[in-house]
Specification:
By secondary structure, the chain is of the alpha/beta class. The chain has 2 domains: 153 residues, Nucleotidyltransferase, domain 5 (2-Layer Sandwich); 183 residues, ATPase, nucleotide binding domain (Nucleotidyltransferase, domain 5), CATH 3.30.420.40. The chain contains 15 helices and 14 strands. It has an 8-stranded mixed β-sheet, with helices on both faces. A 6-stranded mixed β-sheet has the order 11-10-9-12-14-13, sandwiched between helices. Helix 1 packs across helix 3 and helix 10 packs across helix 11. The longest helix has 25 residues. The two termini are 13 Å apart.
Length: 412
């Protein structure tokens, strides 16, 4: 079965083609073909990079803001030119999409129908930086592959079993009845990392209490028990929780009321402040990229140092909250661009939790080895760095759903 995965972000597009047949292996397969599109470097220009399993590469830059046009151009490289890996487009059996917000209704990987598309569209108001991009990817595939099944894999699905005490906000209950609740995000990544951790520790996932730290431009934590998310830091939208690259995370809501009362601040400006002008970028005045923050710290930039210190404080504070929800901890997992690569963030966080017997091998930590336990042998709580594989997780969800459908219709 050839599975095409589209993982759309607000300014990026990642795509992979996997071939997965009789069973899902313990470790992720390498994709036959993978492509990335990045619109963040230059306005109205898309930078495309394509690689194949055989080592062929292609890098180009297109002058366009049209995501559907870029997706169509990118997919042409699957069956044309030096990065060709299939003879024609009809070899693709299913297309899987990461969809950030699935609301209350969609709790599993789901075949995309007109009804599902409409739901994704209606939820754009809750994930305006992501759901529209996810929808554009779906519609682009509809034009290219009109009869191929498409599957939505929702970032919110893994958190769908949050207990009510964690899901319901302390505001009038009728608002909860209207769908205002904690949904949680990065669920595809949190679920993959939890499963990978159990495999690396040779433990049954159901026996583990885990805190997974997805730290990238967007950041969130999940408290996982019995294989399920029971608490998480992102909420009704991906804005809540940890300090992030350009997002504020949680702030006193009274600040927002205060700002809205100022004549020069309207809702759109407030959204711009909280989502794109805050976090590491807002405090440092430089960038939302942790790598640039660390370079600035080395040069003596005090605001960059303050941004880093706030980030670590926010992370430790929220890990403490997840720890309380779990009532103990077996493993702490770091993933994402910052989680996998910042030895300083990991070292300071682990130092803060030495009181629960978190102890890391500093030499191992300095090397940032992925899919590895970096704890000392006598540590009670294991600390792991896991390379998140969202695309692979999406592919396996598609494979499982298609197998179920074939079985139900007597085709397997």
């Amino acid at each position: 079965m050839k599975i095409l995965v589209l993982n759309a972000g607000s300014s990026t597009q990642k795509s992979c083609l996997y071939e997965l047949n009789d069973a899902v292996p313990d470790s992720p397969l390498s994709p036959l073909w993978k492509a990335t599109v990045d619109w963040s470097h230059h306005q109205e220009f898309a930078k495309i990079k394509v690689e194949t399993a055989s080592g062929e590469q292609l890098e180009e830059e297109l002058q366009t803001n049209s995501r559907p046009d870029v997706i169509a151009y990118m997919l042409d490289t699957l069956w044309q030119g030096k990065t060709q890996v299939i003879a024609n487009i009809d070899e693709i059996n299913v297309v899987g999409h990461r969809v950030v917000h699935g609301g209350e209704k969609y709790r599993d990987a789901t075949i995309i129908t007109p009804e599902v598309k409409e739901a994704i569209k209606n939820l754009c108001v809750l994930a305006p930086a992501h759901n529209p991009a996810n929808l554009q990817g779906i519609e682009a595939i509809e034009k290219l592959l009109p009869i191929i099944p498409q599957v939505a894999v929702f970032d919110t699905a893994f958190h769908s079993q949050l207990p009510l005490a964690a899901a319901v906000y302390p505001i009038p209950y009728y608002l909860f009845e209207q769908g205002i609740r904690r949904y949680g995000f990065h669920g595809i990544s949190h679920e993959y990392c939890a499963k990978k951790t159990a495999q690396l520790l040779n433990r049954d996932l159901a026996s583990l209490r885990l805190i997974t730290c997805h730290l990238g431009n967007g950041c969130s934590l999940a408290a996982i028990r019995n294989g399920h998310s029971i608490d998480t830091t992102m909420g009704f939208t991906p804005l809540e929780g940890l300090m992030m690259g350009t997002r504020s995370g949680s702030v006193d809501p009274g600040i927002l009321i205060h700002l809205l009362r100022q004549q020069e601040i309207n809702v759109n400006k407030l959204d711009e402040i909280l989502n794109r002008e805050s976090g590491l970028k807002g405090i440092s005045g430089l960038s939302g990229d942790m790598r640039e923050i660390m370079i600035a710290i080395e040069k003596g930039n005090l605001r960059a140092k303050l941004a880093f210190d706030i980030f670590v404080h926010s992370l430790c504070r929220n890990i403490g909250a997840m720890l309380a929800s779990l009532g103990g901890l077996d493993a702490l997992i770091f993933t994402g661009g910052i989680g996998e690569n910042s030895q300083d963030v990991r070292a300071l966080v682990c130092e803060a939790f030495e009181f629960i017997n978190v102890k890391i091998d500093r030499d191992k930590n300095a090397k940032s080895p992925v899919d590895c336990d970096i704890s000392l042998a006598n540590a009670k709580v294991r600390v792991l760095i896991v390379h998140t594989e969202e695309d692979w997780q999406i592919a396996t969800e598609c494979w499982k759903l298609m197998r179920v459908m074939k079985s139900e219709f007597g085709q397997a």
